C-alpha cells in the first residue's frame, strides 16, 4: 500500500551523487578541455538514449551520465571524432540499450566502449590519470558504499589483492590512480558486477588479481588499458562467480539443515 | 472492546467452501461452530462473540463471501469438553478439540500458507513471540501474566508434532518458559528489526518448509489461547490488536474479537480527510472492513493526493517498460534480511524458474515475507504477486 524509494532511477541518481567528487576534481584539473570531452560523451550517450526512448519506449536513465563521465575520463586521447563516435555508440547501444536499458544489461557500457576503442585503435595513447583524481575515487567509494549502491565486498576484495601484490613488491606508484578510478567507475557498477555476497568478494579479488598480473607481466600496456582489460574480464566472469556462490550457499545449507 | 458487528469474510480466490451450521437470525454462543469446511468437515469456524447471525452470503460452489454477526451479550459462551484432549496419551483428541473449536484455523502451514489439513504432521512448529511489522502489537505484552496458558499451549503444540517447536522471541524481551521442559522446544532470540521477526524468515533459517516436510507457524497469543481453551474449555474472546497509522490522531491498542469492525476500532481517532482502512500492516495489509483472518493490527492511511494525470508520453514510457528492472543494492539485500541470495531469487521468480526458486528456499516464504521488498524497490509487477503466482503454480503441479 505504501511505496519506498529504491527504484532504478533512485539508484542511478545515488550512483551519480557518489561519483560527483571524482567529476569535480577531474574537471578542476582538466579545465575547459575536460568539460568539452564530457559534453561530447554526454551528447553521444544522450542521443542514443533519446533514440531508444522514441523508437523502443525505453525510459532513459541517469546511469548514462555516469557512463559518459567514465568515458570522458578514461577514453583514449588524440582519437578523431569519428572513432570516438563509433566506439561510444557501439558501447552504449550494444552493451546497454539493446538489452532494454540500464538494469537489464550484462556488461558496463563504458567498459565495452573502452575495450572496443582499445582493440580498434591500439596506437592511440591512453590518458594518464593524475594523482588527485585517483584520490578522489576514495570519497566516491565511501558515498557509494554508504548509500548502498556500491558493494563494500567488491572494493575490499580488489584492495586486498592489490595490497598483497604491493607488499610482494609490485610497483604501483604510477598506476594506482587509474586502478582506483577504474574500480569505482567500471567494476563497481551494481548491474554489471556480481550480485551475491561471496560472488562480490570473488569479483573484487578477480579484478585485483587480473590487474596485478597485467601490471607484472604486460609491460607495454598503459595503466588505463590494464584497468579496462581487467574490468572487462572480471565483468564477463561475474555470472559464473554468482553461480559458484549460489552452489556453495546451497551446499552449506544442505549440510546445516539436512 | 467488542464491536457491535463482526464478520468473517473470504475472497473468491481463497476458495473457502463452507456449509453453514446455523441459519440467519439464530442466536449463537461465543465459540460455537457456525460454519464447517466442505473439503474437511472436521474444520469448523466459530462465532467470534455472543451474537445473532445477521447474514450469510455464499458465492457459487458454497464459497464463503461473508458471514455477519450482531452482538447479543446475553447469548453466553460455548464450553467445550476438554477431558479427552487433556489426556497426554491421545494426540487425536487434542486435534479434534482444536478442529471443533475453530482454533485449528489459527495454525498456518507452509509451503503455500493454508490452514493445515486435519491429518497433517508438521516437521516443526514455529511460535512467533515477536512481530516486527510496523506498528504491530508486541506478542509478549499480549500474553503478559499468562505464563500458565503459554506453557499449556506449548505442551499442546509439542503433542501435535514429533519434530521441534521453535519459540521465537525478542532478544530484548525474553519470555519465561521455565515451566516447559522438553528437549524439543528451541528458543530463538532475534533482534527485533523488520523483516527478521516474520515467521518466513525464521522458518527459512532454522527449518525450511518443503512439500514433504510442512512447517506450521502460530502466533504466541494464539498458543496462550490454546492453553486457555484446554484449561477452561472456552474459546478466547479477544486478541490484542493495534490501531495505528499516519491518518490517526493517536494510536492505540485494543482487545477485540476476531473479525471486528475496523471502522469502529478507529472511530473518533481519524484525522479529517479521505483515508483508507487496512487490515494488517502498511506493508502487507489489505483494504478491509473487518479484521481479517490472523491479522492483529489495523492501519489507517491517508489517501495520497492524487496527482493530475501524467503526460501521455510519460504514461506510455512507464507502461512500456514492464517489468521494471531491479538494481542489486544494499537496500534490496536488507529487505530480504540477508536470508538468501536476493538477486538470484528475484531472477528465478521473474523468469518462472520454479526449480531454483524451490532450491533457494522459496517454499518457506509467503506474500507477507516479501512485502518489504515490494516497498523498498517499488517493483512493478509486485514481488508479492510474483511470489504468490509462483507458489500457486508449484501447488498446482504438486497436486497432480
UniProtKB/TrEMBL annotation, chain A:
Q: Which residues cross the membrane?
A: 12-28, 34-52, 59-75, 81-99, 129-147, 154-170, 176-194, 201-218, 224-251
Q: Which UniProt keywords apply?
A: Flavoprotein, FMN, Membrane, Phosphoprotein, Translocase, Transmembrane, Transmembrane helix, Transport
Which Pfam family would be a valid example here?
NQR2_RnfD_RnfE
- InterPro entries to which the protein is assigned, alphabetical: NqrB/RnfD
Identify the species of origin.
Answer: Sinisalibacter aestuarii
* Protein's recorded name: NADH-quinone reductase
Asked if the Swiss-Prot or TrEMBL record annotates the protein with the keyword Nuclease, the reply is no
The answer, when asked if Nucleotide-binding is one of the entry's keywords, is: no
From TrEMBL, chain B:
- Name the Pfam families on file: NQRA_2nd
Name-wise, this protein is Na(+)-translocating NADH-quinone reductase subunit A
Q: Which InterPro entries match?
A: NqrA, NQRA_2nd
Instruction: State the organism of origin.
Output: Sinisalibacter aestuarii
Residue span, NqrA second alpha/beta domain: 93-234
Tell me the classification of the organism that encodes this protein: Bacteria, Pseudomonadati, Pseudomonadota, Alphaproteobacteria, Rhodobacterales
Amino acid at each position: 500500500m505504501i511505496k519506498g524509494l529504491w527504484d532504478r532511477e533512485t539508484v542511478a541518481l545515488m550512483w551519480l551523487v557518489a561519483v560527483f567528487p571524482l567529476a569535480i576534481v577531474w574537471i578542476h584539473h582538466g579545465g575547459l578541455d575536460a568539460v568539452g570531452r564530457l559534453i561530447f560523451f554526454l551528447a553521444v550517450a544522450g542521443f542514443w538514449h533519446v533514440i531508444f526512448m522514441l523508437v523502443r519506449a525505453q525510459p532513459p536513465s541517469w546511469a548514462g551520465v555516469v557512463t559518459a563521465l567514465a568515458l570522458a575520463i578514461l577514453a583514449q586521447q588524440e582519437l578523431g571524432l569519428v572513432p570516438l563516435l563509433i566506439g561510444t555508440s557501439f558501447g552504449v547501444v550494444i552493451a546497454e540499450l539493446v538489452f532494454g536499458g540500464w538494469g537489464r544489461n550484462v556488461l558496463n557500457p563504458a567498459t565495452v566502449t573502452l575495450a572496443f576503442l582499445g582493440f580498434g585503435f591500439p596506437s592511440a595513447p591512453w590518458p594518464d590519470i593524475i594523482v588527485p583524481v585517483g584520490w578522489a575515487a576514495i570519497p566516491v567509494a565511501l558515498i557509494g558504499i554508504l548509500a548502498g549502491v556500491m558493494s563494500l565486498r567488491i572494493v575490499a576484495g580488489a584492495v586486498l589483492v592489490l595490497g598483497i601484490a604491493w607488499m610482494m613488491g609490485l610497483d604501483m606508484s604510477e598506476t594506482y590512480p587509474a586502478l582506483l578510478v577504474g574500480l569505482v567507475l567500471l567494476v563497481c557498477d551494481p548491474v554489471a558486477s556480481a550480485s551475491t555476497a561471496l560472488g562480490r568478494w570473488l569479483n573484487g579479488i578477480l579484478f585485483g588479481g587480473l590487474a596485478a598480473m597485467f601490471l607484472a607481466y604486460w609491460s607495454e600496456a598503459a595503466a588505463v588499458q590494464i584497468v579496462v582489460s581487467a574490468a572487462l574480464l572480471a565483468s564477463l566472469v561475474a555470472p559464473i562467480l554468482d553461480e559458484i556462490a549460489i552452489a556453495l550457499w546451497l551446499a552449506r545449507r544442505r549440510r546445516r539443515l539436512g | 472492546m467488542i464491536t457491535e458487528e463482526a464478520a468473517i469474510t473470504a475472497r473468491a480466490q481463497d476458495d473457502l467452501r463452507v456449509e453453514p451450521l446455523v441459519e440467519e437470525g439464530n442466536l449463537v454462543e461465543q465459540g460455537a461452530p457456525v460454519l464447517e469446511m466442505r473439503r474437511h468437515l472436521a474444520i469448523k469456524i466459530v462465532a467470534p462473540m455472543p451474537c445473532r447471525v445477521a447474514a450469510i452470503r455464499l458465492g457459487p460452489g458454497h464459497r464463503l463471501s461473508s458471514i455477519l454477526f450482531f452482538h447479543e451479550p446475553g447469548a453466553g459462551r460455548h464450553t467445550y469438553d476438554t477431558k479427552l484432549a487433556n489426556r497426554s496419551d491421545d494426540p487425536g483428541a487434542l486435534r479434534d478439540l482444536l478442529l471443533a473449536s475453530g482454533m485449528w484455523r489459527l495454525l498456518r502451514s507452509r509451503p503455500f500458507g493454508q490452514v493445515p489439513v486435519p491429518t497433517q504432521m508438521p516437521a516443526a512448529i514455529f511460535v512467533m513471540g515477536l512481530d516486527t511489522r510496523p506498528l504491530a502489537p508486541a506478542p509478549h505484552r499480549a500474553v503478559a501474566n499468562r505464563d500458565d496458558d503459554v506453557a499449556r499451549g506449548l505442551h499442546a503444540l509439542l503433542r501435535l508434532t514429533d519434530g521441534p517447536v521453535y519459540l521465537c522471541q525478542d532478544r530484548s524481551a525474553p519470555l519465561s518458559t521455565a515451566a516447559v521442559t522438553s528437549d524439543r522446544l528451541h528458543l530463538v532470540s532475534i533482534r527485533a528489526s523488520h523483516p527478521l521477526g516474520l515467521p518466513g524468515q525464521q522458518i527459512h533459517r532454522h527449518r525450511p518448509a518443503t512439500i514433504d516436510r510442512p512447517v506450521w507457524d502460530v502466533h504466541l497469543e494464539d498458543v496462550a489461547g490454546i492453553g486457555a481453551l484446554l484449561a477452561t474449555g472456552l474459546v478466547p474472546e479477544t486478541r490484542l490488536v493495534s490501531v495505528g497509522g499516519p491518518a490517526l490522531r493517536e494510536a492505540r491498542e485494543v482487545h477485540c474479537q476476531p473479525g471486528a469492525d475496523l471502522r469502529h476500532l478507529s472511530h473518533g481517532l481519524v484525522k479529517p480527510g479521505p483515508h483508507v482502512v487496512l487490515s494488517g500492516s502498511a506493508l502487507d495489509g489489505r483494504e478491509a472492513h473487518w479484521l481479517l483472518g490472523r491479522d492483529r493490527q489495523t492501519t489507517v492511511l491517508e489517501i495520497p493526493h492524487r496527482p493530475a494525470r501524467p503526460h501521455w508520453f510519460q504514461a506510455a514510457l512507464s507502461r512500456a517498460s514492464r517489468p521494471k528492472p531491479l538494481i542489486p543494492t544494499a537496500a534490496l539485500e536488507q529487505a530480504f534480511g540477508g536470508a538468501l541470495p536476493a538477486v538470484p531469487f528475484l531472477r528465478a521468480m521473474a523468469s518462472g524458474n520454479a526449480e531454483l526458486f524451490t532450491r533457494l528456499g522459496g517454499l518457506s516464504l509467503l506474500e507477507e515475507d516479501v512485502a518489504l521488498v515490494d516497498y523498498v524497490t517499488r517493483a512493478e509487477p509486485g514481488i508479492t504477486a510474483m511470489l504468490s503466482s509462483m507458489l500457486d503454480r508449484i501447488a498446482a503441479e504438486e497436486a497432480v
